[in-house]
Amino acid sequence: MFDQTNTTGVPPEYRPLLDPPAPPVTAEPVPSERVLELNAEPAANPKGTAMGWALTIAVAVVLTIVVKTFILQAYSIPSESMVPTLNVGDRVVVFRLNTDPARGDIVVFDRPANDPKTSPSDPDVLIKRVIGLPGDVVESRDGEVWVNGKQLVEDYLPDGTTTIIDTPITVPSGKLLVLGDNRSRSFDGRIFGPIDKDLVVGRAIARIWPLSRLGGL
Fold first, then answer.
1. For 156-192, how does the pLDDT look when each residue is reduced to its tens digit (9 = 90+)?
2. I want to staple 204 with a disulfide (CB 3.0 to 4.6 A). Which of 12, 106, 119, 211 is the partner?
3. Catalytic member of 128, 140, 175, 186
4. Is 81 one of the annotated active-site residues of the chain?
5. Which one is catalytic: 47, 68, 79, 81?
6. Is 121 an active-site residue?
């Protein structure tokens, strides 16, 4: 006999078993304290911020002093002795760590003792070009500079520049012979002789003013 209540025609033992429906999932409420903890940003510390700025400014000032005192320094050109390379009023940057220049370098140096000031307005430092190194013999022939028997190529001078050196100059050990590029208007090593290398402040590496003449040296 068949079960009269079975309308599917499938015996009970072959019917699939169904899991009971799962209970609805309810989100656990987040405590208000936890919400505040997740969303809140740390408040700025005015005292800490001020100290940070003060430290930054102090470091910048120290670095500026160090750079200006020991590394780079700007100088203004006071005379015509280096025209046309440097005009009166030009400003140059001097690399103070270079106190052992090569021939052709432009250097700033302390005024030598045998070239005293003639007025209070005279500068304490001078700027010229290195021509003679220790051991060199420097002379002029037909208006050209000769070093150790060879003509010195001075392509930084205008065409037609004449250099007069009355007698050959021998550069002693530890000294440099410096001349201005404006040979006819430069009071330089032809007058006060070779200078001590210890007087060299540094090498002029760039012209920074006026902007129209900005460039390396």
1. 999 999 999 999 999 999 999 999 999 999 999 999 9
2. 106
3. 128
4. yes
5. 81
6. no
